[in-house]
Amino acid sequence: MRSRSNNSPTAICCADLHIRHDIPIGRIDNYLEAMFDKLIFILNLSKQYDCPVLVAGDLGNKPSSQGWPPWLLEKVISLFKKYNSTIITIPGQHDLQNHQLSQ
Fold first, then answer.
1. In whole angstroms, how far apart are CA 78 and each of 10, 19, 62, 71, 84?
2. Tens-level pLDDT at each residue, the chain (103 residues)
3. 33 vs 29: CA distance, rounded Å
4. CB 80: neighbour CB atoms within 10 A?
């Protein structure tokens, strides 16, 4: 990492991305495009400021074992690799099997 000025962030913090393959009820925009645009915006900030991304819960809308089709997992992984950012995630209830850390 490069040295930081007083105005440079040390991390980009976000939460509740709820990455999913299906379109939520009530969304009339191109949901998948909007979802990936937001993720790319965050990754661009991380690259611009040379700092990690902290995801404070709910990276996904469901645990990967229940709701991440292969194409979605591949797309997210390819974006993370493309931007080469450090991604630190804390599991949220939507990331956990049965919404429980113990399972």
1. 24, 14, 20, 10, 10
2. 455 566 889 999 988 888 888 888 998 999 899 999 999 999 999 999 999 999 887 777 665 555 678 888 889 889 989 999 899 887 766 555 555 556 5
3. 9
4. 15
Q: Where are the alpha helices (DSSP H) in 14-68?
A: 31-49, 64-67
Task: State the residue for tokens 């991380």.
Answer: 46
**85-38-68-20 Cα dihedral, nearest 10 degrees:** 160
Model pTM? 0.78
Residue with tokens 């074992």: 65
Pair of tokens at residue 64: 């990967």
Task: Retrieve residue 92's tokens.
Answer: 């949220």
Which own/partner pairs from 1-5 qualify as long-range (CB within 8 Å, at least 24 positions apart)?
1/50, 1/51, 2/50
What span, in angstroms and rounded, lies between the C-alpha atoms of 11 and 87?
10
Nearest to 60 by CA among 13, 22, 9: 22
